[in-house]
Design brief:
GO cellular component, one term: mitochondrion
Keywords: ATP-binding, Metal-binding, Nucleotide-binding, Transferase, Zinc, Zinc-finger
Radius of gyration: 25 Å
InterPro entries: Dimethylallyltransferase, Matrin/U1-like-C_Znf_C2H2, P-loop_NTPase, Znf_C2H2_jaz, Znf_C2H2_sf, Znf_C2H2_type
Family: Belongs to the IPP transferase family.
Strand order of the largest sheet: 1-2
Shape: flat
Strand content: 5-15%
Domain C2H2-type: 200-222
CATH topology of the domain at 19-94 and 102-136: Rossmann fold
Helix content: 40-55%
Distance between the termini: 70 Å
Number of strands: 4
CATH class of the domain at 19-94 and 102-136: Alpha Beta
Structural class: mainly alpha
Order of helices and strands: EHHHHHEHEEHH
Length: 241
């Protein structure tokens, strides 16, 4: 018989965050950079070769609902590839006459503004997910979270790299350090009974405890399954009539 050794590794999470105004500016600049790197020809090619060819007009399903494409549908449907080239040439011209400002560019800028807005919203959801996942004091074991502010990249070594190395070295060598982890968030719903079980007939899943069941009921997956089943029920009613 061979003895198996189990090592309990010490774990921690380093959360690199940015202040909201800094993050939003970076996200906007990233969208502008995507345009400079050829975003318009890329989405035009996808639209011409896939959407129009296959008559795919449902922008609420599959890849068509992804961020970075559906926001440009108003422009793509109204203007052609030739207009894309006209806009690109206009933007490349450093001495462009404002009287020659293409009307199509106004609509394109509106689409870009929508993309920036949606990107900011998605970023906020990501931060919220991280906090709910790691900081809400659930029954499962969660490693300590150390936050480092990356809002000033010019001071990266001082405010990010060096502190991160200090935290990791302290964990590896089991040494004390001055950095404190983020405090866990106490969710009042955790006081709900864990002695009961609930079966979601919509999703056909079993949940142990009131807290986990309530999280499921309010989650997007449950809502999508519920909406899908209601849609099917309406179709069946129409057929029967």
């Amino acid at each position: 018989m061979h003895a198996t050794a189990f090592y309990c590794l010490r774990k921690c999470v380093i959360f690199n965050f940015q202040h909201l105004e800094v993050l939003n500016t970076r996200l906007d600049n990233r969208v502008d950079g995507m345009v400079e790197m050829g975003l318009l020809p890329e989405i035009r090619k996808f639209y011409d070769e896939f959407i129009q060819l296959n008559h795919c007009l449902d922008y609420t399903k599959g890849v068509l609902q992804t961020i970075g494409f559906k926001e440009f549908i108003p422009y793509l449907e109204k203007y052609s590839k030739d207009e894309d080239q006209r806009i690109i040439e206009f933007l490349k011209s450093l001495n462009g006459n404002q009287n020659d400002f293409p009307d199509s560019l106004k609509l394109l800028n509106s689409c870009l503004d929508e993309l920036k807005l949606v990107t900011r919203r998605y970023s906020k959801k990501q931060v919220k997910w991280i906090k709910n996942r790691f900081l809400v004091n659930l029954s499962r074991q969660i490693p300590p979270i150390y936050s480092l502010d990356t809002s000033q990249p010019q001071n990266w070594n001082e405010i990010v790299k060096n502190p991160a190395e200090t935290i990791l070295n302290a964990y590896i060598n089991d040494e004390p350090m001055n950095f404190k982890p983020l405090e866990k968030i106490k969710d009042p719903r955790q006081e709900m009974s864990e002695d009961t079980s609930h079966f979601c007939e919509i999703c056909e899943r079993l949940f142990i405890g009131d807290f986990q069941y309530q999280l499921h009921i309010k989650g997007n997956k449950h809502k999508k399954v519920l909406a899908s089943k209601r849609k099917k029920e309406k179709k069946n009613l129409v057929k029967n009539e």
